[in-house]
């Protein structure tokens, strides 16, 4: 049966008073309370037991993860811990878990709370990045898969509450800390991580203070092969099948092909301060602050080819490019319009997140408890002068053959004999003759700086700021008696979130393309370049890797920006490549008032205890969108591959909208026996539109010749989508820390928000339409035959529906006193909104949907602890778009094996080790079909050793 407990202080006081105030009885009661606090099962079994108890006692479907000890979470990363829960899958960044998907619903569909409060996010979406909070600061994670009226809305997938430690809960004096060194096998660098926590209570346990800090530095290396996208039907001439027949179906041509090495310096500092005060027996005041400074400074060196579809030709006797049965180009030759470049890129992510809260927990009388909670959270991501997406290119005009075969990695090969007629004044490196048997074809030609020329110089990105203010008033009335209505919960909540995004780049004035045409001057031989060697084992586990270049010419991007600025100044034409804040910025304010009522009942059904929770939540939301947008007024040809969009004056945009929602819920728990629990839960939940998708501005993406024009727009009128949910589960708790469960869930989602594509033209001041100067009789200049510039515009809209259902199976078993134990779970999901890869007109499919498996084995006895964990996620659709293409992004199945162990040197000190991704799995992303490579990323193995103490 469900139980309702007072806060810790008042419960202890009531227990003491019940002994009739005799001195000896009071002393005995206090002694018993202290004994209960001291006796605590630590380690793996203790954590599993606490997590199982939380699951068993919950009214709905809840899964939890508990720290094994203070400052000792099961995994090094919160997201990686969450993936051990059935139904939860993760997306990785730099080899670390970052974002989560629950039951097929991606990051933006899951509400993340810290100590019951929403925390701001530095992402452009509503998604929360779990890599910003150190696991050492966290006491437990609760994943609520079913909803109640008392719970904050927004999570169709789930609501996740991150609980940090509290001094009153710890009780007395406690110090814990750890020091470890992390070795990254790819980078061959060892970096430190330290964490510490100190907590104490004073003045007869009426005052508590907790301070915790964690600092981590990590240097990673990511070995990558990447294609930014596959273009659909963009003018590949005379396509041929492998048998030489003309092909008339959909054609998918490559946008580019790069080999990359990305190095990251990750630095994370977390601080948590908690103050608790109990001025009386029935009141606890808690003030807390959480701060996270998380920076990722990423530098990439890469070598790659850029393809322009109208210039693709056939090879040998073929009149056109060769395609397979799906229309994927598998063999092409390109002479005109090809760029072969050496890239120096930066993808910095500099973030700050803070959260402050004040809570009053007041037992008004024996029946009524009221809490008042105020919180403020802020997250920022710096524009950093466009270094969130910075690109420095040095390259040349070239001729290349590109082939796709049975290997995972395609083959790009260069050709002999320079052709000075390609472009006047541009360079082509003397390549070696194409020979499929030559490994690393053309490598030697990328090592002479005299052949290289300046090209594109980009700085761009978004500055993001998110602020959330919340006030909650919650009340719980406990009815006397053991049956019927036992509790009434009620309350109100006000929430205000303001997210602003400012676009920064150097594209608007065309400065990024000051050297786009590979000019003869400046001579890049005078600029410092060096030979980068990716190593003979670069992506060696991926088929086709033995024929790719592993050495190429590299440079420092920042130095190249400075070099070209100095050269331009010496020619009397000074320029600055610095990014500027564009007239493409917006701010969205969302205010929500919520009221809720929930009733808890207890009784019997056929002699079996039954408890029911029924409630309703009402929400009223007002949205205000403010922004500035500058309309496109012209397109100017910069070189053979690039056009510049010109913009008019900034125009102010302001729109308002509002909507209401009534969200009912009911959950029933039946104790079939003392050890078997059956549950039923039904509810309606909603997820609000991503704030970035409500942007009122249109951002120009690609402006290339031949009609390759793309843009994206937001939709301020978007409404939330809702889901009708049903959960059924049966759970058998047959031993200490041992249980089996099976659950079925079904979600019927309406008013789904999806990205669709539309043709978009721009009207000029004189009423005419913007034209594309590359489409007339002279593709190098405007003329009277130029056609209308028609952009493929991506726009979010409401309207689609989807049904998602699935099964969750879980087993947790400890083998008596042997010390061994096992956890296993599986999630099997299905939907009626899956992708048809061959249908390029499909505008909606559910992203993130995939089966998953977890298997964890552990041993814990005496001073030894050991754990080995295997996680598998099946192939899933990640996105309906590509970064620079027309198709979808699919992630192939991925399995990761991790291990950890520790030895207790003393009762208070232990040494430990950790191994991450022991089998060195790599991430593989593709387009619609298996041979449309998008990304291969090898993050390598990581190892850590350290020492931990608790006193």
Describe, in plain words, how this protein is organized in 3D.
- The protein is mainly β.
- The protein folds into 2 domains: 8-38, no CATH class; 43-393 and 459-468 and 502-509 and 580-950, TonB-dependent receptor, beta-barrel domain (Maltoporin, Chain A, Beta Barrel).
- It contains 6 helices and 52 strands.
- The strands form 8 sheets. The protein has a 31-stranded mixed beta sheet that branches.
- A hairpin with a 7-residue loop joins strand 23 (400-403) and strand 24.
- Helix 1 (8-17) runs antiparallel to helix 2 (23-38).
- The longest helix is centred in the N-terminal third of the chain and has 16 residues, at 23-38.
- The radius of gyration is 30 Å and the shape is globular.
- The model is unreliable at 1-39 and 416-444 (pLDDT under 50).
Number of discrete helical segments: 6
**Count of discrete domains:** 2
Let me know the number of strands: 52
Major sheet, described briefly? 31 strands, mixed
Indicate the proportion of strand residues.
Answer: over 45%
Could you name the key traits of this structure?
single chain, mainly beta, 31-stranded mixed sheet, Maltoporin, Chain A, 951 residues, 6-stranded mixed sheet, 2 domains
In short:
With 951 residues, the chain is mainly β.
Topology (SSEs and partners):
Blueprint: H1 8-17, H2 23-38, H3 43-57, E1 62-66, H4 78-82, E2 88-93, E3 96-102, E4 110-114, E5 117-118, E6 138-144, E7 158-164, H5 167-170, E8 174-184, E9 189-202, E10 207-226, E11 230-232, E12 240-241, E13 252-254, E14 256-280, E15 283-306, E16 312-313, E17 322-323, E18 329-334, E19 339-346, E20 349-363, E21 368-381, E22 389-397, E23 400-403, E24 411-414, E25 453-478, E26 484-505, E27 530-533, E28 551-554, H6 557-570, E29 580-581, E30 586-605, E31 608-629, E32 632-637, E33 643-647, E34 651-671, E35 676-687, E36 698-704, E37 708-713, E38 721-735, E39 738-760, E40 771-772, E41 787-788, E42 791-814, E43 820-831, E44 852-861, E45 864-873, E46 876-879, E47 889-891, E48 894-904, E49 909-916, E50 922-926, E51 933-938, E52 942-950
Parallel strand pairs: 4-7, 12-17, 37-42
Antiparallel strand pairs: 1-6, 2-3, 4-5, 6-7, 8-9, 8-52, 9-10, 10-14, 10-51, 11-13, 14-15, 15-19, 15-20, 16-18, 17-18, 18-23, 19-22, 20-21, 21-25, 22-25, 23-24, 25-26, 26-29, 26-30, 27-28, 30-31, 31-34, 32-33, 34-35, 35-38, 36-37, 38-39, 39-42, 40-41, 42-43, 43-44, 44-45, 45-48, 46-47, 47-50, ...
Helix pairs in contact: 1-2
